[in-house]
Specification:
By secondary structure, this protein is an all-alpha fold. Helices cover 61% and strands 2% of the residues. It contains 14 helices and two strands; from the N terminus they run αααααββααααααααα. The protein has helices at residues 17-47, 54-74, 83-95, 111-136, 146-162, 184-219, 226-238, 244-252, 254-265, 271-280, 284-294, 296-299, 304-313, 347-350; strands spanning 170-172, 177-179. A hairpin with a 4-residue loop joins strand 1 (170-172) and strand 2. Helix 1 (17-47) runs parallel beside helix 10 (271-280). The chain is globular and about 65 Å long. It starts with 16 loop residues before the first helix and ends in a 7-residue tail after the last helix.
Length: 357
């Protein structure tokens, strides 16, 4: 078998076609499931007008980014040095900032799409984490920062993903199509370095938020304030729907991170690591959909009668009363109001443990 990157065939693992077919099959399956999951989330949010709640809009934006990222994993071409190959790697870097693994299928090299998609997903996870920190620790809402979230998550990745074009660094990289090995400063400057730092910060923030909420629950024992009953509902509305998504991203990033570290210090292709990488990298859409579907409020509405009624409500002028609660604007503070100072209520009365918040 030829190993010429411009010809059809597999040039990984010493030309072992069986291993390449396994990698490609898992990639396509994982990406397809993720696309289905993302479409499920977007469809339910649109159908039941959940987008009226800020927390649900954040889930919507994350799902759109994950969908575009998963689409990139399905793109293949015929020539690793073609312009379309560079576009695919750029796409994935922009929209996902996690995988940039693209096995040569039929000699295709899809590195530009990889690099673009990765950034957007990661930054939306960061914005969700920031929102959780503000809601859960500072008891402040960040709805007014929604426009800034969009600027950060869509514009910054676009700029960063264009840097390798300066000296035509995108190209055939052996195990996948990405920044070529002869440009290590681009790899570490706009990928490995920021990635490890951000993943570390996300882990610290999520751990601190969990510990903080547990301590809050204990400090509320023996005290009660009717005003804080409304705080409980607001926290549930803003924190509970979002709490799992950063954890999902962190969990699914473990094997891709290990594979990146191995690749950074060695150019040898390890089949096991690559298999785990390509299995988990496209999966956020799938796992996000499972968590989203397990939400009790969502599950209770997935009956044929409610689905049909919600669907037709989008096309009729008749006002149909839905079950999804409207956003509560107090007592969590906005830019023009003061934050909550006293948060003491009993854990039994609030039923506000970490697994629920």
């Amino acid at each position: 078998m030829t190993t010429d990157p411009n010809t059809v065939g597999c040039n990984l693992f010493g030309g072992d076609q069986r291993k390449c077919e396994i990698i490609l099959g898992i990639r396509y399956t994982s990406a397809t499931l993720s696309i289905i999951g993302c479409l499920f989330i977007v469809g339910v949010i649109w159908l039941f007008k959940k987008y009226e709640v800020f927390a649900q809009r954040l889930i919507l934006y994350l799902s759109v980014a994950a969908f575009l990222s998963s689409v990139g994993y399905l793109f293949t071409g015929n020539h690793p040095q073609s312009p379309s190959c560079k576009f695919v790697a750029f796409w994935l870097t922009y929209f996902d900032w996690k995988g940039q693994l693209q096995v040569t299928d039929g000699g295709s090299c899809t590195y530009l799409l990889v690099f673009l998609a990765e950034w957007v997903v990661l930054l939306w996870v960061c914005c969700i984490t920031v929102n959780l920190m503000f809601n859960g620790i500072l008891t402040r809402r960040t709805d007014h920062l929604e426009w800034l979230y969009h600027v950060i998550c869509w514009c910054i990745p676009l700029v960063i993903s264009c840097f390798p074009f300066i000296n035509d660094s995108y190209g055939y990289a052996g195990a996948w199509c990405w920044i070529q090995p002869q440009f290590p400063y681009w790899r570490f400057g706009i990928w490995y370095g920021p990635l490890f730092v951000i993943i570390g910060l996300l882990f610290v923030c999520y751990l601190y938020l969990t510990i903080h909420l547990r301590r809050k629950v204990k400090s509320w024992e023996g005290l009660y304030n009717p005003e804080l009953e409304r705080t409980k509902e607001v926290l549930r509305q803003h924190i509970r729907p979002l709490q799992w998504y950063p954890l999902i991203y962190l969990s699914l990033s473990v094997f891709p991170l290990i594979h990146r570290i191995q690749n950074a210090i060695s150019h040898e292709n390890v089949f096991g690591l690559m298999l785990l990488h390509i299995l988990f990298a496209p999966l956020p859409g799938t796992v996000n959909a499972i968590v989203f579907g397990l939400d009790r409020e969502t599950t209770s509405r997935l009956s044929w009668i409610q689905i049909k009624r919600a669907f037709f409500s989008h096309f009729t002028k008749q006002t149909i009363i839905g079950e999804y609660p409207a956003e509560v604007h107090s007592p969590i503070s906005t830019p023009n109001s003061q934050p909550i100072i006293d948060m003491e209520i009993t854990s039994e009365q609030t039923d506000l443990d970490v697994s629920q918040v």
